[in-house]
Design goal:
Helix content: 10-25%
Number of helices: 6
Number of domains: 1
Strand order of the largest sheet: 9-10-11-12-13-2-3-4-5-6-7-14
Number of strands: 14
Distance between the termini: 8 Å
Strand content: over 45%
Structural class: alpha+beta
Radius of gyration: 19 Å
Order of helices and strands: HEHEEEEEEHHEEEHHEEEE
Length: 267
C-alpha cells in the first residue's frame, strides 16, 4: 500500500524552472529580492491526480485517483514547516482517507497518526508534498533558468511557462526520488509530456501569492521485452500564500523526540 501511495505522490511532486522578462514594471531582480526576504508564511495547498492504465494480463482498465490538501505555515530560515495534510485515494473499488498533522525540521519529517508521532524522513514523497516552503524555492528556480513573459494584471503580475516532466525533475534534483520509487526500472520508463505549465501570481512588490501547476503525462513502463504498460496521468496542484512574514514562532510539537518509525505504521 505504501508503494501505491508513493506512486500516487509521484504525480504530485511538481516543480519547475524559468526567469522574468523586462519592461513590465517588475524586474527579475526585484522578484528575487522579495523571495529572499520571505522568512515566514502560511499556505493552502491543494493537489489532485488521476491515472489509468490497461492491465496487460487481464486487458482491463485500472483507474486511480487522489486528491488532498495541506494547510500549514513555514519558517524558511529555521527550515521548519508545520500543518495538517489530508489525502483521499480511490483505486480498484477502495477508498483510502488520511488526515495527518505534520512537522518538518530540515530534512526530518514527522507525521501524527492515531495520536502518535512517527518519523517519516525516509519517505521523500510525503516530505516534499507536505513542505509548502519548497514552493518558494521552486519559484526561484523559475526565475533563474528560463525566460518567460510577465504580464500585468488588474492587481499585481503573473507569468506562465511551459515545462516538461524531465525539466522539473532535473531542476529540482528529484532523480534520487525517482530511483527510490522506480528502482532499476527507471531506465525502462519513457515519459511523454503532453502538456505542462506552471503559473505564478505576484504582488506589485514581487511577493508570490499563488502558484499553479498542471501536467498531462503518458508513461510507458517496459517490464519485459514484450510487456509494456502505458499509464496516463493528469496532475494539478495549486498553492496560495498568505500572512507573509507575519507568522508567529512555530513550536516543536510534544512527542517528536519519542517518535516511532513511520515504517511501523499500519494502514
Amino acid at each position: 500500500m505504501k508503494k501505491l501511495i508513493a506512486l500516487f505522490l509521484l504525480g504530485l511532486v511538481i516543480a519547475a524552472s524559468g526567469c522574468i522578462g523586462d519592461g513590465t514594471g517588475l524586474t527579475k531582480e526585484k522578484v528575487l529580492t522579495s523571495l529572499k526576504s520571505i522568512e515566514t508564511a502560511r499556505y493552502d495547498q491543494n493537489f489532485s491526480m488521476s491515472m489509468y492504465f490497461t492491465d496487460p494480463s487481464t486487458s482491463k482498465t485500472v483507474n486511480m485517483s487522489m486528491s488532498g490538501r495541506a494547510l500549514g505555515a513555514f519558517n524558511r530560515s529555521a527550515g521548519i514547516d508545520t500543518g495538517n495534510m489530508s489525502l483521499r485515494m480511490h483505486t480498484m473499488g477502495m477508498d483510502i482517507k488520511l488526515n495527518w498533522p505534520y512537522f518538518i525540521n530540515g530534512t526530518s519529517a514527522y507525521f501524527k497518526v492515531d495520536g502518535k508521532w512517527y518519523n517519516a524522513s525516509s519517505s521523500d514523497s510525503l516530505y516534499r508534498q507536505a513542505k509548502g516552503s519548497l514552493n518558494v524555492d521552486y519559484i526561484e528556480n523559475l526565475l533563474r533558468n528560463r525566460n518567460v513573459t510577465i504580464r500585468k494584471l488588474t492587481n499585481g503580475y503573473a507569468f506562465r511557462v511551459n515545462i516538461t516532466f524531465w525539466e522539473f525533475v532535473n531542476a529540482t534534483n528529484q532523480t534520487g526520488y525517482l530511483k527510490e520509487v522506480w528502482g532499476p526500472s527507471l531506465d525502462r520508463v519513457n515519459v511523454t509530456t503532453n502538456s505542462g505549465w506552471v503559473e505564478v501570481h505576484l504582488r506589485n512588490d514581487g511577493t508570490p501569492t499563488f502558484v499553479e501547476v498542471h501536467m498531462n503525462l503518458t508513461m510507458a513502463f517496459k517490464f519485459a521485452p514484450k510487456e509494456t504498460v502505458v499509464a496516463h496521468l493528469t496532475v494539478q496542484q495549486s498553492t496560495v500564500f498568505s500572512d507573509v512574514n507575519g507568522v508567529a514562532g512555530i513550536k516543536i510539537p510534544k512527542g517528536i523526540k519519542s517518535a516511532g518509525d513511520f515504517k511501523d505504521v499500519v494502514w
